[in-house]
Amino acid sequence: MLQKRVEAVTTAAWRAGLFVGHRQFARVFDSFTTEMGSAIGPIDVAYETWGTLNADRSNAVLILHALTGDSHAVGDVEDGHPTPGWWNGLIGPGLAIDTNRYFVLCPNVLGGCQGTTGPSSIAPDGEVYGSRFPAITVRDQVAVEFALAQRLGIERFAAIVGGSMGGMRVLEWLVSYPEAAERAVVLAVGAAASAEQIALSSLQIRMIKSDPNFCGGDYYRYGVVPAHGLRLARELAHLSYRSPGELDDRFGRSRQTEPYPEAELHSATEDDSFAVESYLSHHGKKLVQRFDANSYIRLSEAMNHHDVGRGRGGYRDALSRVKARVTVIGISSDRLFPVAQQQAIADALPTCEGFYVVDSEIGHDGFLVEVKAIGDIIRMAL
Question: 27 in helix, strand or coil?
Fold first, then answer.
């Protein structure tokens, strides 16, 4: 049954122009009810591991990816993976998250499009979910990850680590399952989505839905992809991931003389286009080639609903329940999740062991790019 399900997921992903590599799969629910009351299932999770789980299963580290990440935290472009590992240089033998010491687990998130059940998966009726895939929350995603841990026999993680959307899930893990982790590292995120973050995500969702090929979310049946809308959404998002200073230093007002590979330069000619336009277009096209538009929408909506204090008396009361020893990291130039948001988390945590700000011109993406500085802090935290 599981193998048939995995084949169905893979077929749906390739139909949508996606990639599913040689990952491991686990069925964690035959039926799952979302926080908003929708029934869905079965739920399968794609995940990857590195290192060896010790006899008492106490050396596991859970790594949680960001919005367009996946289970491929470490590795090359191989086995069907469209991109290299998104945290190469940080996880591995002798590195900050040392796989000689730890068993590292990285699952693809519920609602994703890299093997875990999501909008491009096959529903029980044999058709792609598409628009029928329900709205989900960060708490739903964490419930699925918790079920995976139980399935693997991991009762308590040595650490849980994640940034951005992954950081949202780290916070939910710590509050929902206080005994499930000894330590945690939270990077580049806030305790709740801010008005500006919601606005940015909402605009990206509108861009995708306004594409004529979106077809109400059921574009799979017509053999089309809302590529233009998804590309624009990614370009807007990527702009928020970088800092004004970094963009000025890299591009300024320079013109693009040689376009990025396969870049579309909008309606302007190559000679008249600014380099920064080509840069954004390049990143938009790259995402279209590997990510599902419906997944982008559902995951963005989940991020918009993020509020670790919802129904818990506010974020301070919620974080006061945390028992794990937590390290909080911010990026100095992050304009999407400003450092003040990480400071607020650190101040509310009774078990905060350190709050660090990495000096970087990169912006929000610094939590992915500044591997040496981030790695040094994580090494100390673990």
Answer: strand
Q: 301 exposed, middle or buried (CB, 10 Å; 0-12, 13-18, 19+)?
A: middle
d(Cα 165, Cα 299) in Å, to the nearest integer? 9
Given 65, 228, 305, 364, the catalytic residue: 364
Residue 257 has pLDDT above 80, yes or no: no
Residue 319 in contact with residue 310, Cβ under 8 Å?
Answer: no
Q: What whole-number distance in Å separates Cα of residue 177 and Cα of residue 188?
A: 21
Length of the chain in terms of residues written:
382
Report angle CA 256, 261, 266 to the nearest 5 degrees.
55
Q: Is 282 noted as a catalytic residue in this protein?
A: no
Looking at the structure, tell me whether residues 41 and 183 fall in a common domain: yes
Cβ–Cβ contacts within 10 Å for residue 223, how many? 9
Catalytic: which of 164, 300, 333, 360?
A: 164
Phi, then psi, of 80 in degrees rounded to 5: 90, -5
Q: Taking residues 260-275, what's their average pLDDT?
A: 52
Instruction: Give tens-digit pLDDT for 146-201.
Output: 999 999 999 999 999 999 999 999 999 999 999 999 999 999 999 999 999 999 99
Is 234 labelled a binding residue?
yes
Instruction: Tell me which residue has tokens 């109400």.
Output: 216
pLDDT at 18 over 50: no
Instruction: Indicate which CATH number applies to the domain containing 243.
Output: 1.10.1740.110
Residue 334 annotated among the catalytic residues of the structure: yes
Residues 159 and 258 in one domain: no
